[in-house]
């Protein structure tokens, strides 16, 4: 039996604002089932003696320290902007929804 159903894929598509055909829903449900199975196999690996890590190699912070220094004024930052509104960059609406 599939770990993820066609209805769950349809729900995820709706949340992601993706329009998927019925054939795509079936296809992605099968693919996601394979992915979930692979993740489950990884979870089965014996890792009791391996300490958790966020990276394979030990790393140290290589960033410079935060220091306050002069920056652009709002007028300087907006000087080359193609459109400005209320001292902000004006960009086209992408979702077509009310703010």
TrEMBL record:
<keyword id="KW-0648">Protein biosynthesis</keyword>
<dbReference type="InterPro" id="IPR003837">
    <property type="entry name" value="GatC"/>
</dbReference>
<keyword id="KW-0547">Nucleotide-binding</keyword>
<dbReference type="Pfam" id="PF02686">
    <property type="entry name" value="GatC"/>
</dbReference>
<comment type="function">
    <text>Allows the formation of correctly charged Asn-tRNA(Asn) or Gln-tRNA(Gln) through the transamidation of misacylated Asp-tRNA(Asn) or Glu-tRNA(Gln) in organisms which lack either or both of asparaginyl-tRNA or glutaminyl-tRNA synthetases. The reaction takes place in the presence of glutamine and ATP through an activated phospho-Asp-tRNA(Asn) or phospho-Glu-tRNA(Gln).</text>
</comment>
<protein>
    <recommendedName>
        <fullName>Aspartyl/glutamyl-tRNA(Asn/Gln) amidotransferase subunit C</fullName>
        <ecNumber>6.3.5.-</ecNumber>
    </recommendedName>
</protein>
<comment type="subunit">
    <text>Heterotrimer of A, B and C subunits.</text>
</comment>
<keyword id="KW-0067">ATP-binding</keyword>
<dbReference type="InterPro" id="IPR036113">
    <property type="entry name" value="Asp/Glu-ADT_sf_sub_c"/>
</dbReference>
<comment type="similarity">
    <text>Belongs to the GatC family.</text>
</comment>
<keyword id="KW-0436">Ligase</keyword>
């Amino acid at each position: 039996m599939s770990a993820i159903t066609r209805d769950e894929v349809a729900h995820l598509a709706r949340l992601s604002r993706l329009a998927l055909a019925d054939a795509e829903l079936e296809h992605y449900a099968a693919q996601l089932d394979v992915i979930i199975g692979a993740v489950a196999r990884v979870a089965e690996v014996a890792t009791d003696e391996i300490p958790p890590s966020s990276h394979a190699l030990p790393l140290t912070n290589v960033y410079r320290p935060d220091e306050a220094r002069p920056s652009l004024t709002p007028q300087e930052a907006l000087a080359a902007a193609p459109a400005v509104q209320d001292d902000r960059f004006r960009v086209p609406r992408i979702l077509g929804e009310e703010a």
